From TrEMBL:
Species annotation: Paenibacillus apii
GO cellular component: extracellular region; membrane; outer membrane-bounded periplasmic space
Pfam assignment, any one: SBP_bac_3
CDD domains listed in its UniProt record: PBP2_GluB
Annotated family: Belongs to the bacterial solute-binding protein 3 family.
Domain of life (superkingdom): Bacteria
Keywords: Signal, Transport
UniProt keyword Transferase, yes or no: no
Protein name: Glutamate ABC transporter substrate-binding protein
Gene Ontology molecular function terms on file: ligand-gated monoatomic ion channel activity
Length: 277
């Protein structure tokens, strides 16, 4: 009886040891690759759901702005998103738009709340560590928005005593701090809050991509974009890492839009001019 009990105990210890080794092996294999696993089979999931879930801005005129009266979200990013939905599901209206900000878009993507981010998101090497990007779908550059008559006429007129407003989690905040060492930057949850702060005199200028700033200037003619763009901001559509299927579907959609001339129509509709060659 004692021998049987000892044998059983040894067998249980060996089994536990093997299970522990297997667990360690899985952790090792998944280290840095959990998002890749989460990103696999994205097209099948979208088709099974019957709807494309896209993270877009609700506060960015020309790209993604929600009309409080109708509840509709409209803009350049929305039209691109609809084209992707049509490519994948055959229906541009088979889409669910979810609000994201510069701060929330990557967490929401990697939590599986959305299939992709189409939200004026600049492709950077740092972000490539967290997500995968499509080809560039819009080319922008960082600039400044000020009240007309402001002494701020461009980047060169800012000093460490200036106060600039920006959006949390955006590359613009990092860029302006590098361009003007010691400058004060106030960060807000979204661009509309930052624009309101500019209007109430909390800063000398608001900085982000010129494409977004032109939308703000269109909202209020008392404000204007000044100076030349001082960064290169290529926008990409983000998906979970490892989701090459969805990246291909997006890139195929962009290629189709450009070859058919539809991309130029969408660009001119929202930006007011044809894209630069």
């Amino acid at each position: 009886m004692k021998k049987s009990w000892k044998l059983l105990s040894v067998m249980m210890i060996v089994a536990l040891f093997i299970a522990a080794l297997a667990g360690c092996g899985n952790d090792s294999n998944n280290a840095g690759g959990s998002n890749a696993a989460a990103g696999e089979g994205g097209i099948a999931k979208i088709k099974e759901r019957g709807k494309l879930q896209v993270g877009v801005k609700f506060d960015t005129k020309l790209f993604g702005l929600k009309d409080p009266a109708s509840g509709q979200v409209e803009g350049f990013d929305i039209d691109i998103s609809k084209a992707i939905a049509k490519h994948i599901l055959g229906d541009e209206n088979a889409i669910e738009l979810k609000e994201v900000t510069s701060k929330t878009r990557i967490p929401m993507l990697n939590n599986g709340e959305i299939d992709m981010v189409v939200a004026t998101m600049t492709i950077t090497e740092e972000r490539k560590k967290e997500v995968d990007f499509s080809d560039v779908y819009f080319q922008a550059g960082q600039s400044l928005l000020v009240k007309k008559g402001s002494p701020v006429t461009g980047l060169e007129s800012l000093t460490k005593d200036s106060t600039v407003l920006g959006s949390k989690g955006s590359t613009s905040v990092k860029n302006i701090k590098e361009k003007v060492p010691g400058i004060t930057v106030l960060e807000f949850d979204n661009y509309q809050d930052a624009f309101t702060a500019l209007k109430t005199g909390k800063g000398d200028a608001l900085t982000t991509d010129d494409s977004i700033l032109y939308g703000m200037a269109a909202q209020d003619s008392n404000y204007e974009v000044v100076g030349k763009p001082f960064t290169d901001e290529p926008y990409g559509i983000a998906v979970q890492k490892g989701n090459s299927e969805v990246v291909k579907a997006i890139n195929d959609t962009l290629a189709e839009l450009k070859s058919s001339g539809e991309y130029d129509k969408i660009y001119e509709k929202w930006i007011g001019k044809k894209p630069a060659e």
